[in-house]
Design brief:
Chain B: Pfam families: Gal_mutarotas_2 (PF13802), Glyco_hydro_31_2nd (PF01055), Glyco_hydro_31_3rd (PF21365). The structure holds 2 protein chains of 2 kinds. Chain A is of the alpha+beta class. Chain A contains 9 helices and 16 strands. The chains are: A alpha+beta, B alpha+beta.
Chain lengths: 508, 929
Amino acid sequence: KMYCPYLLLLLSLGVSAVEVQRPRGVPLSKRQFYEEGKPFTCLDGSRTIPFDRVNDDYCDCQDGSDEPGTAACPNGSFHCTNAGFRPAFIPSSRINDGICDCCDTTDEYNSGAACQNTCRELGRKERESLQKMAEIAKEGFMLKQQLIQEAKRGLEEKKGKLAEVQTSKKDLEDKVEALRSVKEAAEQPEKEAKERHLKAWEGNFKCEDISPSTVCFNVSVAELLLHSELDQDSDGTFTETEAQGLLGGVDKVDTVAFEAVWSNIKDKYISEAKADTTAPVETPQEETRESVSDTDSEQYPEDDIPEDEEEEDEDDEDEDPDDGEYKVTSLSFSIRLVLDGPGKDDEDEGTMPPYDQETQNLIDSKYMYKTENIEKEISFDFGPSAEFGYLYNQCYELTTSEYIYRLCPFSRVSQKPKYGGSETSLGTWGKWAGPDDNVYSVMKYEHGTGCWQGPNRSTTVKLTCGKETVVTSTSEPSRCEYLMEFTTPAVCQEPPSLDSMHPDHEEL
Amino acid sequence: MATFTERMAPVLAFWLVLCLSGTWAVDRGNFKTCDQSAFCKRQRALKPGESPYRALLETMELTNTRLTLQLINDNNKVRLLLELYRLQGNITRVKINELKPLKPRYEVPDVLIREPPTEPLSLLSQDDNGVVLSLGAESQRVIVSARPFRLDIMEGRDVLMSLNSRGLLAFEHLRMRKDTQADPEAEKKEEGDPENQAETGKEEEEKVEDGMWEETFKSHSDSKPHGPSAISLDFSLPGVEHVYGIPEHADTLRLKTTDNGDPYRLYNLDVFQYELYNPMALYGAVPVMLAHNAKRTTGIFWLNAAETWVDISSNTAGKTVFGKMLDYVQGSSETPQTDVRWISESGIIDVFIMLGPTPKDVFSQYASLTGTQAFPPLAALAYHQCRWNYNDQEDVQSVDAGFDEHDIPYDFIWLDIEHTDGKRYFTWDPHKFATPKEMLQGIMDKKRKMVAIVDPHIKVDSNYKIHNEIRSRGFYIKNKDGGDYEGWCWPGSAGYPDFTRPDMRAWWASMFAYDQYEGSMENLYTWNDMNEPSVFNGPEVTMHKDATHGAWEHRDVHNLYGLYVQMATADGQIQRSGGVERPFVLTRAFFAGSQRYGAVWTGDNAAEWDHLKISIPMCLSLGLVGISFCGADVGGFFKSPSTELLVRWYQTGAYQPFFRAHAHLDTPRREPWLFGPENTALIRDAVRQRYTLLPYWYQQFYLAYHTGQPVMRPLWVEYPQDPATFALDDEFLIGRDLLVHPVTEEGARGVTAYLPGKDEVWFDVNTFQKHNGAQNLYIPVTMSSIPVFQRGGSIIPRKLRVRRSSSCMEHDPYTLYVALNPQRTAEGEIYIDDGHTFNYEKQEFIHRRLMFANNVLSSVNLNPEARFTTRSWIERVVILGASKPSKVTLKTADGQESTVDFDFDASMSVLTLRKPGMNAGEDWTVKLQ
């Protein structure tokens, strides 16, 4: 018979020790059904048997309840107390099978398996990790609140901007017209003309929102902030202070001063681009927004032009510099213009387009894009409180042994061989695809490049709470069906207070 | 240029695969018809009744063990030597070779387990027309007729089988090649007798240019330096309307006549997306045919490893049932007869005529020649989880955990080619499988095992140890010009080790040693794929026939290659454990004798209902020719199965010998828990049923190992006199006591199963409902299970405590299912050993007979010399078709008597004895009073 007088149950936090007698494998909560000496009724009520048939290694009850401590019933379950860790039920087929399942070793009482009691260690580890997770959740949740606030602000601004941009475009066109006259009037000397040319160019991009009369060679904090927003179409947490930091602690710098600032940024950018490949292209929100410099990466030009779904080109990444110019964000572009100055030979980026019609076209496309893009952005489902909005137009990368994976939320997922080769689309934004009670936990990207004899590639992105916004893993469980794990504060839930997070107290 | 080639390799390989795959069906154009195979075309063109062969009776020599006799071809005067042997166990061997061949002709080695022992022949009578020899037992005689040459094997007044009765014996003698531009006239002179053969002579000359000395198929040319060498012989089987065997074909169990199409082809080929119900060659070849009628079963074993075609015709094939009836009533019918003709490209005629008379006798006879099924480790009979590919160690770990999470047992997880470092076998991908031992240890901690693929094509790469060794030892097969043969396969350019060489096989085996095969552990086993051999850019996706294996051409040994690969691999596994542990090796290509080395599967099938259906006749056909350990990819390899098909396939696979799920790289994942909880439960249930029956499966494999009886059997094998069973291949028996009728139709609401046996009863294993034999029974089905019946009169041991792997169940108790026949008796067996070593050869096993008669159930030792002890006991006895006793007593070996509690279910007449508790390895009796 397998009746066992039960042992001291030590609880993880309490100091209390209690001796509880019950048949092997019975949880405390069901103890009252197993009364020593009295006939036992199967828990499904199907029949009653003498008590000595409980745990006698023969299955009498259909529901397996007479053999909680042996492997006799195919559908039975065994309760391990696991003092120091979490109690658990295991299928009774795992009793005495030579494999240690319960951390308190109670499942292997007759198999000769040499099990070690690992409950305390597991309990400690679990508490540590719970604590860690709670901290992450807490911080993540705070970050999420910020994101929500900023998203709210950003949305309003964008709506306003939409209207504003539409009108200012008209103004600009007038201005261009005026500048063109000036240019024509001042064809020589060449240097002068180029300077004016530059002014006009700068003016088109940088001065419109401050004051048309501001000298455009100055870069101000306000301007930076503004441009970060415009460029990225997401306001993020690029704060005034941070921007100020960029500019060396002052509100406004002139060309010469900014040149110094820029060279700092530039260095930083270059070093980051070459650094740890697992770092996302964008650094987390609470840090200084590096997007200012990141976005002029040659390797990953920002896709400012709305994606044309139809002409999904696998070789997108290998755009020629001419194309690239249009995609380079205006701020970095204009900064470069400022720094490099007219006439300076620029190798492959930032070459000032020739004046005239091209400028006009640039303006057109720029503003066309701006309005369209803002409209498009507003139409996305960025979550109940728009907390996912900050991911828009960002890209996150993960490099594995063979590939560089790139997730651009709400846009697309792609894969590129690490050592050369063309990029493959693993899907474009499809929908939120989490379970009904948690729709915003999974993103689905669909209709990627087709597989030979198979479906089009698609990617499922699982979102988990984290302080940082990072792609943590990728895999291809089925051919052409990718799985990405992605952490972001935006899915963090308000953590329960730490007090209620102790391991289960069921046993007492 | 080198760079170019290197860079193009993957592209080319891809292109090739693409070419092979254009549509969802085999590209027949890639494979030869008889017409496109020059020797088949030549031979098939011969007309019956014009045999040029004559026996020269004056050359006859009869010794105690054999008769020899010369035959002469009257057309060309070439002489042949006939050898005739009477072998022990009612087998007659007929060998025909050239009397004086230009060079030796290939005789297949390594297939027979020994030189078969002979029995004396004696001369009964002799005259100018022939001789009569006694075959010893049963008044059997061989009549050798002289003109034309012919052999008739008689028993009493019945002719059992005739050879060359249609005069289709043909033997293309080896000859010197005439000058490059063969002179037809010269050739003709050599052929002799121009008068007689004037017309056909001319035709033959045409063929000389066509296919005798060179042959092209698509872009491939076969240089045929030795010229024509085909052989052919016909066999007549009077009274026979059913013939079986000659796998591997995706066709019905009962072989069809081939008059209106191609013959059945035996030529090991990697056929991409094979088509069903046709005689095309597939991955393996066993040149053994069984012939059966209600009176007798016989067999023909054509021992030849070259490309072979088998024609079947029948004088009743075209007749309707009405026509046959009419013949019968009018008494005017000719005897039904099946005629068979074997054609091979090279080698000699070496044929074993197995004279039965029962199916079991034929199995024993064949086993006495080529050996029996290797006795697999018990775990290999459990469930195998495979996929091309489990991507990395993490993937393996999570699939392993998935089985535990969903409480589905499994024993083996498999790794396909992607686990290697660039398709270099015996290596591991350094990123995805960086720490294989850690992975294997993790599997071992769950008492589970792993299989990793090792294919015979070896990447040509000077940085690859295996390649360098094979090259430096000169172990590669050579091309016709003497260089190492290279072909394209998974790794790109690959060499093919010459497994026909014993020294090569020994070296290969040594590569499985733990210190050679890095990352391997004792729970790592092997899968040999692509061993036809598959050569992506070769003729018919295989090797050029003019490649050479030492003195022989690939042409001579082709069908044997796969057997040798598996032989060497299994040897390696045995050696790595010092001969202690049983190997487990799965092969795709096979030949006669492959049963000795492990398991076989039916290759790259598809996720279609018809493929599920064909798995039954394909494995039945293999079982008939000795290969019991057969299975089909559960779920289908290509394409993605519907959930219903997948569930039905699990339910079927659970009752087939080799039970492995497998899936193509391009298909979505299909681990059992991915189809919703309901289907997970259905699949769990199917797999668990398999595990409860493992004691029975194991016992059947012991029997197969011991006697050569197939494990999975067509019904006619057990009911040889019941013509209703002769063509059944939608249901089958496991051993003789379990009848399985899988559900192979989509949306099926019921199936009609034939329950054989006029005086038998069958019990539904799920409901215990009793049915009478000799009837077609309609059985309604739901998705929950397929119809399975236990024969009344049998006792089947099960282990009902299903655990996460078979090893975890080793010491678990048994439940005995005693199904009573109308005479209220039953018998069965129980076999127990350690499950994984060769110690059973040293009598370390328990083998007992369980008997129920006169209300007493008892266990008696079948092998008193055997010694093994078990911790397993009998926890329950379920007696089906019982009546209620008043008392049940148990008497154990020590003389103790005790009463046993019981339950009786009167509605189903099921008596359950509660916990009798006796040890499964000891004597005991249980008495019902």
